[in-house]
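Postdoc handover notes: sequence design on the structure in folder B. Input tokens:
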């Protein structure tokens, strides 16, 4: 009996050891899947910009939380590693895993970038631009073009672009005498309208206004102007908006994205889609309260352009739209879709 008892005891010990070994192996398997990834993220926003905090740092927190720390974003503000106009190429080549840009900085690669930057005086309300991007397929068209360069394109938000100026615009001569900091399609539009528009990096914008190098500028609308200190030197906030568009974009290297496990890829894409709606709505709320505060505390005045000035700007704008369509068949398709949409809304 002792012989059988010893045998049973040996089998029990062996089975226990085998169970422990299997358990250890199983517990080790998930550990291998818990690799962490660190992405370098170069922004076109200065650290002082509201979007650096509210968009980029928000995304950093969301991805950290939803991946349980497996994906870390190492943020660099404007100019830290690359010039703003170099970010798209750096992401395309995989030198940077992620970046933020204005579509205007990718016009030589993405034929739809000029339309994405916002055709002047097209949309009148933010929801119209959001619907065009997400419900009518314009965002996917942008994403498909960017993918040809190894880049995943995600519009951060749509919002109005409104100028600030040092002296009010009361007539057409006031407008055409302006020197304005601008970029992309709006720079072309303002120049063709008669003003002198030039590009100045965001990090140099305040000093350019303060010193008189320019008389006016656009950096988003009231939030951008406030966060950059522009109301200190330019007390007139101009309306209506020059455009309403997806003027900020988050771009990701497809190489970096494809290296992530499938669950993390989905987390990233879902977070970006969610961010579009959260930031678009949040931006409008903050626009209203920021401008009200600037009026109350800094003596800012809203300068509504006279009707005759608006009429001339609209004519110039609509002539420009057709020029953007000449960039590619894809651009023509997007413009046709836009014109049809604006006609349905009763604007054309």
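Designed sequence:
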């Amino acid at each position: 009996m002792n012989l059988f008892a010893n045998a049973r005891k040996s089998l029990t010990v062996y089975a226990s050891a085998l169970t422990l070994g299997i358990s250890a192996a199983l517990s080790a398997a998930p550990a291998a899947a818990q690799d962490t990834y660190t992405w370098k993220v170069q922004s076109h926003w200065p650290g002082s910009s509201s979007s650096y905090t509210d968009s980029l740092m928000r995304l950093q927190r969301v991805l950290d939380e939803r991946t349980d720390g497996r994906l870390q974003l190492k943020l660099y503000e404007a100019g830290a590693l690359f010039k703003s106009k170099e970010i798209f190429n750096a992401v395309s080549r995989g030198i940077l895993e992620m970046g933020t840009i204005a579509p205007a900085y990718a016009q030589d690669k993405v034929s739809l970038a000029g339309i994405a930057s916002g055709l002047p005086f097209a949309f009148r309300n933010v929801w119209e631009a959001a619907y065009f991007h997400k419900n009518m397929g314009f965002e996917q068209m942008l994403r498909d073009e960017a993918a040809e360069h190894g880049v995943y394109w995600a519009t951060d938000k749509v919002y109005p672009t409104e100028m600030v100026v040092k002296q009010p615009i009361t007539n057409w001569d006031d407008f055409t005498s302006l020197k304005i900091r601008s970029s992309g399609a709006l720079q072309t539009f303002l120049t063709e309208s008669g003003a002198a528009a030039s590009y100045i990096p965001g990090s140099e914008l305040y000093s350019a206004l303060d010193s008189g190098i320019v008389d006016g500028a656009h950096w988003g609308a009231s939030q951008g102007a406030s966060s950059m200190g522009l109301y200190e030197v330019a007390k007139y906030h101009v309306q209506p908006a020059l455009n309403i568009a997806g003027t900020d974009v988050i771009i990701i290297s497809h190489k970096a994205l494809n290296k992530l496990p499938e669950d993390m890829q989905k987390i990233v894409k879902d977070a970006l889609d969610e961010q579009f709606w959260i930031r678009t709505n949040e931006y409008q709320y903050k626009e209203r309260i920021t401008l009200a505060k600037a009026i109350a505390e800094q003596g800012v005045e809203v300068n509504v352009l006279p009707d005759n000035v608006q009429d001339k700007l609209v004519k110039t704008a609509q002539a420009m739209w057709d020029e953007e369509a000449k960039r590619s068949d894809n651009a023509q398709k997007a413009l046709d879709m836009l014109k049809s949409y604006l006609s349905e809304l009763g604007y054309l």
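Context for whoever picks this up: Residues 22-32 have pLDDT under 50 and may be disordered. Don't rerun without checking with the PI first.
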